[in-house]
Amino acid sequence: MTTQLAEGGGTGPVLLGIGLVVVVFVVAGAIWWRSHTKFVEGRTEHWFKAFAAERGGTFNSGVPSDAKAVPTFGVTHPRGHALADWPRETWVEFSHRGRRVIGIDDQEPYRHFDDHTYFRDTHVTQVQVPPSPELRITAGRVSMPTLPPDSPLGTELTRWLAANPRFGQRDVVVEQGSARTWGPGCATRQNLLAEADYLVDLAEHLPAALWVTGGVS
After folding, report:
1. What are the TM regions of this chain, as residue ranges (predicted)?
2. I want to staple 126 with a disulfide (CB 3.0 to 4.6 A). Which of 68, 139, 168, 180 is the partner?
């Protein structure tokens, strides 16, 4: 009889412990679901959506349940893959000064000192351009990774940039039919249009030889 009472008395704390674990999981699940729901709602109602409607453009929230829009051009940064291959990106495509423009809101992973992976907001702006060899403008210098170092086109572009130093103020990549630049933080109407203007000016002032040799690889 004593043994039965002792055994019965031990079930109470065990059941209480199981109950507490269940409560913790339920609360944690509720917090995650609320956070995830707000995240989805935030992306669905991203300001890109109203901007696309205003400009007669196309919006993609990156939310799997949304109908997918398809970009007509563009790549992601820094991965360089075709934008259409990354359906979870939040982007808007519209026309500006006679060119197609795409703005992307993204997150870039990085390692913190505590060896954990964190994410920081970044944005990418790009304009559609004709095919060309890959061109990079970094820290005020020109490089063309797919051409020999002493190629005539590379030499011409170096001279061109020296004569047009304002186009050395931002890092830019021209490849796969797009000229793109990027920056920290989420896209805003102000930085999206300012960067689009910068890239349109760049595309209009680059030497015509760059586009003529578009098939070079």
Report:
1. 12-33
2. 180
Write out the two tokens for 29: 């699940």
Record the pTM.
Answer: 0.78
Specify if 145 maps to a domain. Answer: yes
Q: Is residue 114 part of a domain?
A: yes
- Residue closest to 72 by CA, chosen among 151, 128, 121: 128
Which region, left, alpha or beta, applies to residue 59 given φ > 0 means left and ψ of -120 to 50 means alpha?
beta
Q: What's the domain range around 195?
A: 45-212
Q: Concatenated DSSP letters for 42-58?
A: HHHT-HHHHHHHHHT-E
Give the pLDDT score at 34. Answer: 44
Residue 147 lies in a domain: yes
Give the C-alpha separation, 40 to 34, whole Å. Answer: 10
The answer to whether position 5 is within a domain reads no
Q: Report which secondary-structure segment, H or E, holds 100.
A: strand 99-111
Asked if residues 136 and 173 have their Cβ atoms less than 8 Å apart, the reply is: yes
